[in-house]
Queue: 4 jobs
Job 1
Amino acid sequence: MTRRGLAVIAALAILVVVLAAGSLMAGKVWAPFSAWTAGAADPRWAIVFQLRIPRTLLGVLVGGALGLSGAALQGYTRNPLADPGVLGVSAMAAFGAVMTLYLGLGASAPWVMAAAGMAGALAGVAALVALAGTSGGMVTFVLAGVILNTVASAGVALALNLAPNAWAAQEIIDWLMGSLADRSFLDVELCAAPILAGGAVLLSLGRGFDALTLGETGARALGVSLGRTRILLAVGVGLACGAAVAVTGVVSFVGLVVPHLLRPFVGQRPGALLIPSALGGAALVLAADILVRLTPSAAEVKLGVAMAALGGPFFLVMLIAIRRRLA
Amino acid sequence: MSAPAEIGPADTGLIARDLAVTLGRRPILRGVSLAFRPGEVTAIVGPNGAGKSTLLSALVGLRRPDRGAVRLDGDDLAALAPRERARRIGFLPQSPEVAWAVDVETLVGLGRIPHVGAAGLTAADHTAVARALDATAMTAFARRDVTTLSGGERARALIARVLAGEPRWLVADEPLAGLDPGHQLDAAELFRAFAAADPAHGVVLTLHDLAMAARCADRVVVLKDGQVIADGAPAEALTPEVLAQAYGVRARFHPGPDGPAFELMGRL
C-alpha cells in the first residue's frame, strides 16, 4: 500500500464516520448527539436506536458492497463502465428476490429472500463470465450485460403481470425501487455476513486485477490464474451484491460512479481502488440516504430512484468523455 | 547445435521437444524441437501464419501443446506452478495492452507480481523496479502517465516491466513492431544487454524485420508452416535458398563493414 493509497483510505474512512453520524441525526425528526444519551425517556432515543442505527449500518454495508463490486467488475473487465447494475447482476439479484415475493415465500423465513437474491446475483455473474469470459472484450461484456438485464427485467415484469393480487404487485414495486427506509436489525444481520465474506473474497483479488491491466495474456504470463479469478469474482460479487440487493432492492450506479471518481486518486491501479471504492460507496449511499430523508415531500423519495436520477446523467457525461478520448 | 535427443533433463536452457499444436483442424506447429541457450539472443522469423506466436506461447507455458513438452533449465515447464514459471520467464506479448492510465513506475511494478506476497511491494521490489527503469533509461519518466508516452518510450516502459520481474529468460513476441529504426535499435540493444548481463540469461524474440534479426540476434530460427526450416547463425540461416522457401522472395544478405546488409530483389 502506497502512502497516497493510505491517505485516500483514511480520508474516506473519516468521511464515512462523519456521514454515519449525520445519518443518525438527520431526518424528519432532528436527533442531535445530546438526544442519543438521553436514554429511553426521550422519544428521539428510540428513533435513533431502533430506526436510524440499522438504517445507517445498512447504508454502510450496502454502499460498501456495491462500490467494491463495481471496482472489482471494472478491474476484471478493464472497462470503466462496468457495474453490477449495468452488467445486469443487480437485476438478476432483484429477479431472484422478486420471485420469492411473487411466490409469497418472502414472509416464510426472512433469509429466503436474501438467499434468493444471492442466488440470482451468483447466476448473473456466472452467466456474464461464461458469456464474455474468455474473449473478455469490452463489447461482449456490455452485450452480455444487456442480455442479462433484458432477461431479468422480463422475469420481473412477468412476476408483476402474474402477481396473485394487487398487494403482492405493490410489494414488488416498492421493493424494486430500492430504499433503506423501515429496515430493522434483522436486515442488518441477514446481509452483514454475506457482504463481509464476499467483500473479503473480492479484496483478495486485487493483485489479479492489477495484473489484468496488461490484458489476459499479460496477466497469465505473470502467473495469475484467470479461471480462479473468474470463479472468485463470481462468488464475491454474488455474495456481496446479492445480499445488498436482497435487503434494499435495486440501488444502481453506486458501483459505476464511485470507482470512476476515485480512480485518479489511487493512480488508476485497479487493486488499489478496491478498499477506497468500498468506503466511497458507503459514503455515497449514506449521503444520498440523508438527502432523501430531508427532501420535503409527502412520501419519501426512494433511494434507488434518487440514485438512478443522479446516475443517468453521470453515465451520459462519462460516455461523452470516453468518446472524446477515443476520438 | 546438438539435436534435442541428446539433451538431458539437467541441461540449462529453454528446450522444446517435438511441440505440436492444432487449432481446430489446422496444424499450427508440427513437431518443433529447439534448444535455446542462456547467453544467446535468438530471433524466430518466418512468414505470417508460420506459427511464431503459437510457438512462443507454448515456450512460456501459456499454451499446452497437444504433443511434446518444454523443459525450462531442467524442469518440466507444465509441472511448474504458474507463479514460479512467471518468476523465471518474463513474457512480453504482441502489441501489449495497458488498460488503465497508470504511471510508468506502477506499470513497471506490475512485473513484480510473481514475487510479491500479501504485504505488497517490499524494498527489494522497489530496488528491482528502480533498476529496470534505469536499465531502460526510463527513470525520468517514472511519474509519467503511460498513455502520454511516445511509441518508443512506451516500448521501453514495457521492456522495463519485464526486466523488473528479474527473470532468467526474456521472451518477446514482435517487440520491435511499430517502432522507427532508431527505436528498434534501442530496444534491440536492451535485449542484447539483458542476455549479456548474466550467464543464466537468455532471450527469445519473434521478429518480422529480417535485417533487424540478422543485426541483433546471435542465432536465427526460420519457421514455416509450423516447422523449423533453418536454424543457426544469421548468415547460415538466412541464405537466399531459405528466404526463397520461407517467403517466396528473391533476397540475400551482403556482408558489409557494419554487419550484413539485406537486399530484397523481388517476388519469386
Job 2
Amino acid sequence: MIKRILILLVLAMLAVMFLKLASNYHENSTLSTLGQYYAERGPAELGAANLVTAVVVTYRGLDTLGEVTVLFISAAGVGLLLRRTRRTDDDEDLDKGDRAEETAGTHKPASEIVETATQLLLPMVILFGIYVFLNGHLSPGGGFQGGAIIASGTMFLLLALPESHISRTLIAMTESLSGFSYVIIGVLGVILAGGFLDNRIMGLGTYGHLFSAGAIPLIYVFVGLKVGFELSAVLDRFRKEDSGPL
Amino acid sequence: MGDLIGSLFLLGGALFLFSAGLGVLRMPDTYNRIQTGTKATTLGTILILVGLAFMHPAWTFKLIILIFFVMLTNPVSSHALARAAHAIGTAETESTVIDLLEPGTDDDTRERPE
C-alpha cells in the first residue's frame, strides 16, 4: 500500500517537473552568434556538407582529440583491471553445482545458426562501419560511430567463434599509428594552414563529393580505426580465459 | 490510395508490436518471453516497413534491404540468447513439454499430451 502511494507520489512529482519545463519552453527562432557563424561560413570555409562534422572535427577539433584520449584511457583502464590471471588447476573454492563456475574457461561452441549468420553478416557489418566513417563529412555518422560498428563486428566474431585469436600486436599497432597520424595531421594544420587540426592542408575538392572537405575524411578514417580497434581490444579483454599469447 | 494501404500495414505492425510487449510481460518464463519478443517483433517491424514502402515508393529498395536484415538478425540473436540462457541453467516453466537442448532428448522421447 505504502509502495503504491510512493509510486503515485513520484509520478505526480515528475508530472509537476515536466509541466514546468514544458510550459516555460519556447523554441529558439534564431541561431546564436556562434551558430550563425558556423552555419554561414562553415560550408564555404571547410567544404564539409555535414556541418556537424565540420564543427566536431575542425572548429572544435581539440575537444574531439580529448574525447579520443578519454576513450583511450578507459580502454587502458579496462586492460589494467582485467589483466589475465591463469586459473590454477586445483581450485579449492570451486563450488560443486555452480554451472557458471564449472564451465569457466571452456568455451561452449556456438551453434551452427550463429556461425553461418556471422559468416554472412560480418563482412557487411565491417563494410558498413567503414562506409559510416568514410562518409562522415557528407552524412550523419563519423569516426566514433563507424568505429563502434566495427567493434560490434568483433563482438559478433567473439560470440560465434569464441576460440578465435585476435592479434594483440596488430590491435596495438593500428591503434597507436592511427592516434599518432591524427595528431600529426593536427600539427600539419599548424604548419601549413590556419591552426591545429585545420582541415585545409589538402584541397577542399567539390562540395558534397566523397573526396572533399580537405583532411576531414582522413582524420575520420584514423579516428574510426582507432575507436574500432580500441573497443575491439576492450571486448577481447572481457573473454574469460586466455586463448593465445598476451 | 497508397497512403491508405500503408496506414493499414502500419496499424497491423503496431498491433503485432503491442502484442510482443504484452507477451514479454505476461509469458511465464524466459524462453517464452524471448519467443514472443522475436516472432511478434519481426513480423511487426516487417509490416511497418512494408507500410512505409507503400507511403514512400521511392524508399522501397532500401526498405527491402532493411527487411532482409531484420529477418536475418532478429531470429539469430534471439536464438543465441535462448541458448545462452539454457547454458547457464535458466529455469523453465512447469508446463514445458520437451527440452530438446537437454542431452539425451530428441523428438521421439516427447510425451504426447493425452
Job 3
Amino acid sequence: MLPMMRSEFRKLSTIRGPWLLLAAGPLLVVAGISGLVQSGANLHAPATQGKALAHVSLAALFTLIFGILAVAGEYRHGTVTDTFLSFPARGRVIAAKLATCGLVGAAAGLVSSAVAVAVTAAWWAAKGGSFHLSAAGTWQTIGGGIAVNIAFAAIGVGIGALIHNLAAAIAAALAWIALIEGIAGQLLGSGLARWLPFYSSEALGRGNVTGSVRLLPQWGGGLMLAGYAAVFAAAAIVTTLRRDVT
Amino acid sequence: MTETAAVEVRGLTKTFGRVTAVREMSFTAPAGKVTGFLGPNGSGKTTTLRMVLSLVRPDAGEALIGGVRYDRLPRPRRRVGALLEAASFHPGRRARDHLRVLADAADVPVRRVDEVLDQVGLAPAARRRVREFSLGMRQRLGLAAALLGDPQVLLLDEPANGLDPAGIAWLRGLLRGLADEGRAVVIASHVLSEVAQTVDHVVIVSEGELRFAGPLGEIGAENNALESAFLKLTAPTG
C-alpha cells in the first residue's frame, strides 16, 4: 500500500490542478467570512462566530473536486493505464486513492480551519466583537468541518471512478449540490431532505446554507455522510474491477 | 534451459459488443529474440497486448509471462516493460516527474530514472513539461518508462511511431541490444519496413486471428519475402 500511496502523492503534487484546488478552499473561507461580516451580522451574538467557522465545510467543495480529479483526471489523460500496469490489483489502487485523498482532505480541512479562525478573529477584533475559541460549540464546528472535507474527498474519488469523463463528473457533482438537492428538498419536504448528502454535510459542518431545512444533529449528519462515502467507495471499486481499460 | 516461454498466449478471445476483436489467438515469444507481432490496422494486435497486460479481460484463453498471469506478478514493472500505442502522459507534468511516479510505484531507486532518461537520450529535456515534447520525444519517454524496471520482457506497441529516420535507426540498435542481453522483445507494428531488419521471429495476425508464427527464416530469404508473405497472409477472407 505504501508504494501505491507514495506514487499517488507524487502524481498529484507534480501537476498544477490539485494545488489550485487546495488554494481555493481557504480563499473561499476568507471570502465567505468577510461576506458574513460585511453583510452586517451581529458580531456579539455567539451564533455568528459559529456561522463564520462553518465556512470550513463549504470549502469541502474543492476537496470533492480534488477527489474527482484524482481518478477522472487519470482517465482523461490516459495515465490510468500506467497506474494499472504498476498495480494490476485495481481494487487496491482505488483504496490507495481513497486513503491519499482522505489524507489530503484532512490537511485541506486543517488549513481551512486555521485560516477561518485567523480571519474570524481578525474581523471580530477589527469590528469590536468578542471572539472566543472556547465558546460553546467552536471545536465541534471546526472538527465537523474537517470531517466534511475528508468525506467529500472520498466521495469525489467514488464519483470520478463512476464517471470517467472529468468535465461530466465535476458538472454532475456541482449540479447535485447547487440544484438537485435544493429541488429534492422542496419535493420531499424537510423531513426527508435532511438525509441527503449535502444536507448531511451541512449538519456535520454545523452550517446551514439554505436555512430552509431542519438539519440532522451533527452526529447524525456525520453517520449519514460516512455511509454515503462508503457506498461511493464500494461502487468505485466494483465498477473499476469490471471495466476493460482500452 | 527452461521450457517456459517468456510470453505465452493461449487461445485468447475477446469480443466487444458484436465485434470479435481477437479469436483463439495463440503464440509464444522466446527470450533473447525480437518477435515482430505484425498485422494490418484493426487486426487485434493492441487488444491482444492489452489482454497480456491484464488491462482487458479475455472472454477465453490466457496469457502468461514466464508462466504467470500479468495480474499475478508480484512486481510487474520489474518483469514486464510495456509501451502502449499513443503512450499517455499528463501534459503539465515534467518528464522526470512522470518517471518518478512510476519509479515510486515500481519501488525502484530514483537513480534508475536518470539512467533511463540517459538511455533514451532525454536527459537534457528531463525537467521540461511533456506538453512541450514532440511526438518522437513522447515516444522516447514511453520507452524510458518501459525500461525503468529493468524487465526481462518488453511489449512495445508501434514503438517507432513518431520517430525520425535517425530515431528509428537508434531504436533498432536499442531493441537488438536488449534481445542480445537475453530479454524477450515483442514489437507490434503494421509498418513492415520498420521491423523487417530487426525481428528474429514473426507472428502475423489478421482479422483477429493468427496467420503465421515462426522464425523469420521460414518465410523466405528473398529481399521482399516478409512483405509478400504478409500481404498474402493478411488478405481479407471471404
Job 4
Amino acid sequence: MSTRNSLLIAVSALALISAVAVAADGPNLGRVATPEEIAAWDVSIGPEGVGLPPGSGTPKQGETVYLAKCVACHGEKGAGKPNDQLVGGQGTLPGDKPPVKTVGSFWPYATTIFDYVRRAMPYNESKSLTNDEVYAVVAYILQLNGVVGENDTIDARTLPKVKMPNRDGFVTFARGK
Amino acid sequence: MATDHSPVRGSDLDTVAGNGLVHRRMFLMAGTAAAASIASAALPNPAAADALQVEPWMKLPGSGFVGYGQPSKHEDKVVRIWNTAPGTIGTGTSRTPHHLLDGMITPNGLHFERHHSGIPEINPDTHRLLIHGLVKRPLIFTLETLARYPMESRIAFIECAGNGQLLYQKEPAQAGVQQIHGQVSCAEWTGVKLAVLLQEAGVDPKAKWILAEGADAAGMSRSIPMEKVMDDALVALYQNGEHVRPANGYPMRLLLPGYEGNMNVKWLRRIKATESPTMTKDETSKYTITLPDGKSLQFVLPQEGKSVITRPSPGLTMKEPGLYEISGLAWSGYGKINKVEVSADGGKSWAAAALQQPVLPKALTRFRMAWQWNGGPAILQSRATDDTGYVQPTREQMIAKRGTRTIFHSNAITTWSISDKGEVKHVYA
C-alpha cells in the first residue's frame, strides 16, 4: 500500500515536473550547436572588436587589394561612382548643402568596416577576401580618410582603437523629441 | 458645376466638410436619385458598345485548371516598379501599386521588396537558423523542426524606412502613390514566436539586444532590442497562407511588427544575443536620420503614424463630376489607427473617414470617404491619428523638426491636387 502510494506520488510529481518543463521550455526541437559550428558562422564584429580574426594589413597592401577588387565600383581612391563614395566629405554633415556621407565622414566605428567588407564585399564575390586582405583594404580606406597613417598596421588589436571622426555624431532616438 | 438639376444635390445635412465631402449615406441616395432621374428622362438608344451582349465566353467552355493561379490578363498593368543600384540587377527597391489595389492585404506577388544583394535561391532543406551568443544552450533549427512549433498569425505592415522620402525634396516629385509610398505592404504572417526559441536557448539576463542576420550575399544584419524581440517578434514561415516568397525571405524571415522594414531580416539564418548593439553598417551609416545640426538620430525603430490617399491619385484621371469614393491607407508602427480625416480643400476643413474593419495594430487600415466632386479644382489630403494620440504632421511641420538632410522616416501628409479636367497631381500644400 505504502509502496503503491509512494509510486503514485512519484508518478504525479514526475507528471507535474514534465508539465512545468514543457510549459516553460516549449517543444525543444533545436539541436545544440558546437563551438566549431558557431565559430564558422559568427562573423559579426561589435565595436569592441570581439571576434576579430587573426591577421593584419597595411594601407599599402590594401591599395593592391582595392585596385584589384574595389575600384570598379567605388572609384579611384574611394572617390565613388558608380557606387558609394568611401572617402572625403568630412565637415559636410551640418549646413545647407547635402551631406557627403562616406566611411570617413560618417561611419562611427572602424570595426563596422571590417564586418561589412568581410560579409558583403566585393559585391559580385562576397566572402572571397582573406582576413589579411580585409584588414589591408580597411587600412587603405582609413588611410585615404586621414584616420590612420601610411605605416600603420591594422589588426584585431589596433582596429577597435581607431577613433572615427564622426564617433560622437549619433544620438539615440526618443519619440517626441 | 452642381446645378439645380443635379440628381445628388448636397444638402447641408449631408455635407461633412468643404468642397464636396459628404456623408457616406449619399452613396445610397445617389443610387435612388440617379435611378429616378434616368426613369423620368427620355431613354436614348444605348451606344453599340454599351448594349447588353451575350458574349463569346458565355457560349463555349472556359479554360482548364492550372497549378498556381494568376491574375486576369486584363490586370497586367498591376505590377511593381523598381530601381536598382548601378551595376546590379537585384540591389534596390520595388514598390507596391497601391493606386490599383484595395483592401488592407497586399498580394504576395506585389509586396514591396528591398534587397541589398539580390534574392538568394535558398534550399530549404539545408537552410539553418542558429541561435547563440549570451544563451545557455546555443541551438540550431531546421525548417522541419520549426514547422513543428506552435504557430501564430499576425497581420502586419512592413514599411521601408525610406518610404515617402520624396517628400523631403524641395519641389514636389511628379510621381504617384506607387513611386512615393510604394515601399509599404501588409500581409498575414504566420510563424513561431522568437521568444519561444530564445527561452529554449536560455537567454542570459545581460543580453539586452540581439543581432539578426540574413543568408543573402550581403549578410544583411541588424541589432534589435531584446524587449521588442520578447514582445512580438515572429520567425515567419508563411505569408498570406503560403510559404514566404523568395523575395520576402524564403524560407524564413524575421517579423518585427511596426519596426522599420530593414530590421525585419529576410532569409534569417542567425540570431545572436548580445549585451549591446553590434553597430552594423545599416544601423550606423544608413538607417539613421541626419538633422540640420549634423548630428544623426540612431535607432529610430518604429514607423510613425501616417496615411495616404490611394484613390484618386496621380495616374487615375477623374472622368466627370459626380459622386466618388476617396480611399486610402493609414498605419502606425506604434499601434492602431484611431482616426483618419480627409480634406478636399487643402486642409481648411476636415471630415472623419470611415475606417474599414478590421482595424488592427501595426497593420494597414483602409479608410473611405464619400466625395461629391463638382468638377472644379480640389486639394485632397488625409491625416491619420493613432491610438497613442499622435497626429500625422504636415510636410512643413515634419521638415521644421527634421530638416531635409535625411531620406528616412518621412510620414508627412501627402497632397494631391485635382484640376478642373480631373487630372491628379502631387503638390505641396
